[in-house]
Write a structure and sequence with these properties.
Number of helices of chain C: 3
CATH class of chain C: Mainly Alpha
Structural class of chain B: mainly alpha
Helix content of chain B: over 70%
CATH topology of chain B: Four Helix Bundle (Hemerythrin (Met), subunit A)
CATH class of chain B: Mainly Alpha
Largest sheet of chain B: none
Strand content of chain C: under 5%
Number of strands of chain B: 0
Largest interface: B-C, 80 and 69 residues
Distance between the termini of chain C: 50 Å
Structural class of chain C: mainly alpha
Chains: A mainly alpha (637), B mainly alpha (169), C mainly alpha (98)
Oligomer: heterotrimer
CATH superfamily of chain B: NADH-ubiquinone/plastoquinone oxidoreductase chain 6, subunit NuoJ
Chain lengths: 637, 169, 98
């Protein structure tokens, strides 16, 4: 059938093979003579680049098909076939997954190339690239999966790689604890996800458990089950994509190397939740209540994270909270049933957030791993390429008109307004102002004014081209990606939304041109205000303030981590220690010890028969024989 | 008639000999009783028309094996003090009889169920050297050879066991 | 009557077992084993006479050969045991005591 494309299976396979090969090479050589870094670097970039090439091939092939019929399937093997449960390890390439595929592999390849420079002189170079390739392979399985179970395989895989890469600098226990936190909080979300797909299977799984069949059978769901499934799946998304209340792992995840933060915690893994909601658009579109929950949780997360971001002093933490905030926007978008708007924001966010993270990595690399912005300053002359590209990224993030972020954010806000969610729209505009403020606070403090630490300023120099060229490429994307989805006002015809239409169930809202223009103007004004306030406070150089009152509360992230620790973590640990100190020795161990005691006593009792005299053993034999004869003589009449 | 009398005589002798073996304290007395049993058994074999085996019993068993046993008994120069003090001998004997009686009765029961036949003495054509030889060297050739190897092994074993050993002190 | 021979064989065999289990003297035990072998020989010959076949005779010869070999070895072991401990009591050798 023309819908089968056997090369789909190769797309996740190349990075996975790369991970295994690099991992084995590293394991067997790291104790003796480590292989040269260029070798590992080249080997590591082959997989992602090949996958990117294949992603382009997929895109081209899909473009050549009729819009209603645009999908390619490849079932590699049958995984389970038990009763009603028939799950294939299959891959589905339709417009949605092909879009995700393109930017995941593209940005993934760029970040791999960047990491060759950033991670140089690290002694576990090979291990890093093995994990990165493994991550990319898992992410591709997630995106390409033909059903919820295959997606879950990738879901778990990216969670694992996130843990491995966050605790990469494992000599410091804090990093390992951060990795643990990421994995555990993720797990809580995964429980929701598994319950969601279990309910889904229970209700409509008999007709096949892949997306195409589920979409066809979705009308058979009762509202109660449907809403329950939507909310449970969203809990999974909260864990993976860091929404309230499971966002606490993302700022701590900045303990990992910067390319990891760029790839995993900005561009790809954290968007898996948004992708999942878009994939299940056939469910969420039927139950607007669930959609509203998603949208409100999203926008409130955006607000909360923006507040935290305004006060942070670690450059990566600012970007981390910014990621949480932008993810909130994406969920607001898919929550109000504007799925293509949300996915488009995923697309543009991947470019400019990866750009910002890699730029921050460039700054950190130049200043020899200094991350406190109050120790930076005036770097725009020393790091010109980094400055220019980061400025483009910041403008895109803030939503300055004509950059990519402007178009995608605006599309979301417009959809919120058009579907009647005025509250979400207002909060969204306010958060846009805050976004602009904290982004430019960062830019001004890092690159403008006078250097605050003269010694590190003197030693700073532009990083090598292997790091700056990806920055430039990403900057181009961040600046011009908006062209792909120009709305009607600007003369475009929402090409990305049109492309995505066969995969999603969407209703495009319409408003009069006047309202659309008004909404756009409101967000532009908010952005300009935000940049202006940042300029006034930080543009001419400022000193680190003493936080008091609300600012202090915000700096300490509303003490959420401490509250979680006191309410959840400590009681759980206490429960565990009660079990290990009282329950285990007295309840379970005693039973085991008892049976051992019983056997020993029985053995001692039977020892009496082993006298050591062979004659006595012969007597035992004869006694046995005699008893046997007694029985046998009964049977011989 | 004559055969019946002989049978009864020989049987009583063999049982008495066996009882003597079991009951005598000194092994020399026991060996002598065993020789009596073996000779009477030889007579019983003759009554069963087993001419060759009758001769072999006398020559090999009563002649060779028993002499070997008596030789060893005398070689070890057993005094009264060397013999074990079997205090509970009677108890053990009575206990043993109690245990053995079921086995004996069961076996006798089995035996009684076999169809009976007269054991007349056959003159020629049964039990003689020629007949035994024919069967031995035609049907039972392989076991014959293996038994010869067995004897060789036993010979080597005896030499190794009782020969001069390197003293490891 | 063949049955009588067989009953006699059974009685001799039981007496042999009795000798093995109730006496402590090494020689007596060994000779009781020889008694058991003889009882088996008698049974073989009785059956051979019953079935008019020579196979029983051949087996009796085999048994005699085995008994001879066993006598040689057992007596060698008895000599060694006497050299080792100086006693002829089977109860002295109790290394298997567990």
């Amino acid at each position: 059938m023309e819908h089968t494309a056997t090369y789909l299976g190769l797309i996740p396979l190349f990075p996975l093979i790369g991970a295994v090969v690099i991992g084995l090479l590293h394991m067997f050589t790291c104790k003796k003579e480590p292989l040269p870094e260029k070798f590992y670097g080249a080997l590591a970039c082959i997989g992602p680049l090949l996958s990117f090439f294949l992603a382009v091939v997929v895109f081209v092939q899909l473009k050549g098909m009729e819009p209603e019929d645009r999908f390619l399937v490849h079932n590699v093997f049958t995984w389970f076939a038990v009763g009603d449960l028939h799950i294939d390890m299959g891959f589905l390439a339709d417009p949605l997954s092909s879009l995700m595929l393109l930017f995941v592999t593209f940005i993934g390849s760029l970040i791999h190339i960047y990491s060759i420079g950033y991670m140089s002189a690290d002694k576990n170079f090979g291990k890093f690239f093995s994990y990165m390739n493994l991550f990319l392979g898992s992410m591709l399985i997630l995106v390409l999966g033909s059903g919820p179970v295959v997606m879950f395989v990738g879901w778990e895989g990216v969670g694992l790689c996130s843990y491995l890469l966050i605790s990469y600098y494992s000599e410091d226990t804090d990093n390992v604890l951060a990795g643990n936190k990421a994995f555990i909080v993720n797990r809580i979300g995964d429980l929701g996800f598994v319950l969601g797909i279990s309910f889904l299977f229970w209700a409509i799984g008999a007709g096949g458990f892949d997306y195409l069949s589920l979409r066809a059978n979705a009308p058979a769901l009762t509202p109660a089950i449907g809403i329950a499934v939507c909310l449970l799946l969203f809990i999974g998304a909260c864990g993976k994509s860091a929404q309230i209340p499971l966002y606490v792992w993302l700022p701590d995840a900045m303990a990992g190397p910067t390319p990891v933060s760029a790839l995993i915690h900005a561009a790809t893994m954290v968007t898996a939740g948004v992708y999942m909601v878009a994939r299940f658009s056939f469910l969420y579109a039927d139950y607007p209540i669930a959609g509203s929950v998603v949208a409100w949780v999203g926008i409130l997360t955006a607000l909360l994270a923006a507040i935290f971001g305004m006060f942070q002093k670690d450059i990566k933490k600012i970007l981390a909270y910014s990621t949480v905030s932008q993810l909130g926007y994406m969920f607001a978008g898919v929550g109000v049933a504007a799925y293509s708007a949300g996915i488009f924001h995923v697309f543009t966010h991947a470019f400019f957030k990866a750009l910002l993270f890699l730029g921050a990595g460039s700054v950190i690399y130049a200043l020899h791993h200094e991350q406190n912005i109050w120790k930076m300053g005036g770097l725009k002359d020393k790091l010109p390429t980094t400055y220019k590209t980061m400025l483009i990224g910041a403008l895109a993030l803030a939503g300055f008109p004509l950059f990519s972020g402007f178009f995608s954010k605006d599309e979301i806000l417009f959809s919120a307004l058009a579907t009647g969610h005025i509250g979400i729209w207002m909060i969204g505009v306010f958060v846009a102002a805050m976004t602009a403020y904290y982004t430019f606070r960062m830019i001004f403090l890092v690159f403008h004014g006078k250097p605050r630490d003269q010694k590190s300023y003197d030693h700073a120099h532009e990083p090598p081209p292997v790091m700056t060229v990806p920055l430039i490429i990403l900057a181009v994307g961040a600046a011009f990606a908006g062209v792909l989805n120009l709305p009607g006002i600007f003369g475009g015809n929402l090409k990305v939304s049109q492309w995505l239409a066969p995969s999603l169930i969407e209703h495009h809202p319409h408003m009069s041109l006047g309202y659309e223009f008004l909404a756009m103007a409101a967000s532009v004004v908010a952005v300009v205000i935000g940049i202006y306030i940042a300029f006034k406070k930080f543009g001419q150089g400022a000193e680190e303030p003493e936080f008091t009152g609300f600012a202090k509360f915000g700096y300490y992230k509303f003490y959420v981590d401490e509250i979680y620790n006191a309410v959840f973590v400590q009681p759980y640990k206490g429960f565990g220690s009660v079990i290990s100190r009282f329950l285990e020795p007295n309840v379970t161990d005693s039973h085991v010890k008892f049976s051992a005691w019983l056997y020993r006593k029985a053995g001692n009792a039977f020892k009496v028969f082993q006298v050591g005299y062979v004659r006595v053993y012969a007597i035992y034999m004869v006694i046995g024989l005699s008893v046997m004869s007694l029985f046998l003589s009964q049977s011989i009449n | 008639m004559f055969a019946e009398g002989l049978f009864i005589g020989f049987s009583v002798l063999s049982v008495l000999g066996a009882l003597g073996l079991v009951l005598f304290r000194h092994p020399m007395n026991g060996a002598m009783s065993l020789i009596v049993t073996m000779i009477s058994l030889a007579g019983l074999y003759a009554l069963l028309s087993a001419k060759l085996i009758f001769a072999l019993q006398l020559i090999v068993y009563a002649g060779a094996i028993m002499s070997l046993i008596i030789f060893i008994i005398m070689f070890l120069n057993i005094q009264e003090s060397d013999l074990p003090e079997e205090k509970g001998r009677l108890t053990y004997l009575i206990g043993g009889s109690v245990v053995i009686i079921p086995i004996t009765l069961f076996l006798i029961k089995v035996v009684k169920s076999i169809p009976n036949a007269e054991a007349t003495i056959v003159g020629n054509g049964f039990g003689g050297v020629k007949e035994v030889g024919l069967v031995l060297y035609q049907d039972w050739l392989l076991p014959f050879e293996i038994v010869s190897i067995l004897l060789l092994v036993a010979l080597i074993g005896a030499v190794v066991l009782a020969g001069k050993r390197r003293v490891i002190k | 009557m063949i049955q009588n021979y067989l009953i006699l064989s059974v009685i001799l065999f039981s007496l042999g077992i009795l000798g093995v289990i109730s006496r402590r003297n090494v020689f007596t035990v060994f000779m009781s084993i020889e008694l058991m072998l003889n009882a088996a020989n008698l049974a073989f010959l009785a059956f051979s006479r019953l079935h008019e076949s020579m196979d029983g005779h051949v087996l009796v010869m085999m048994v005699m050969a085995v008994a001879a070999a066993e006598a040689a070895l057992a007596l060698a072991v008895v000599i060694l045991l006497h050299k080792h401990k100086g006693k002829l009591d089977t109860n002295v050798f109790s290394l298997l005591k567990g």
